[in-house]
Input
Amino acid sequence: MAEEKLALPATTRVFTVANQKGGVGKTTTTVNLAAAFARSGARVLVIDLDPQGNASTALGVEHRAETPSIYDVVVDESSMASVMQKSPEFDHLYCIPATIHLAGAEIELVSMVAREQRLATALTTLLQEADEPFHYVFIDCPPSLGLLTINAFVAATEVLIPIQCEYYALEGLSQLLNNVAMIGKHLNPRLTVSTILLTMFDSRTNLANQVADDVREHFPDKVLSTLIPRSVRISEAPSYGQTVISYDTNSAGSLSYREAAAEMARRGVPN
Ligand SMILES: Nc1ncnc2c1ncn2[C@@H]1O[C@H](COP(=O)(O)OP(=O)(O)OP(=O)(O)O)[C@@H](O)[C@H]1O
Ligand SMILES: [Mg+2]
Output
């Protein structure tokens, strides 16, 4: 891939990265796309909305229990600006970390006012008040369709669904799409599923090829042509508190995420 300068969007694109299935590559996709965009000159924010805090780890950002975090934003109405950290990975790459406290938020939110809108309200304020505009925001969701994920859907304009190329890939997808449709109808009419990314692809297996073909047939205009291969470099990068984009810039895994980012930039916002 040439060192392509990616065109920057005119207004902030806010992606929720969601799939209620666990371990399909949500966090890996979030941090590596964010890093790929930041590397190409965009200002990027990652919001870690998973109590596991995996995105915070991969971006090398402090997220011990006492660290100010997305919990304080969602539950106590702290500003995002007050809990945002700069990732050491790239210039213009920021992260709002998640700590273990977020595990309780799902229950605490139930009885709160505007329980579905709390993340959206805080994000709108951040984007309005930021000295320099953000080009991309990625929200990394937990593997469930609870109130945290609903908050992410309400705060976003686009949904990005990573799909692991394996047997059960399409199972649960209709439930996810139904939820997005419900949110679109009742809470956030601007929301669309704009992007599907096939992850952990192993071209040597017939099954992976078959799953990829199936997904493309169902969602021809949403699936990126770039596939993310199964790669050891991708899976070992987080243990160094890094994305694969900085850990091994020219590895196949890094190149695939950089190409996926370029494709997203070229495609732009769907009509
Ligand atoms: N392309 C890849 N090649 C090899 N390993 C990968 C790849 N993508 C992700 N992994 C590994 O698979 C595991 C699950 O990935 P990841 O944490 O991104 O999924 P997730 O959907 O965020 O999981 P969860 O639902 O728990 O939040 C991790 O150990 C990750 O390092
Ligand atoms: Mg995750």
Remarks:
- The two ends are 28 Å apart (CA to CA).
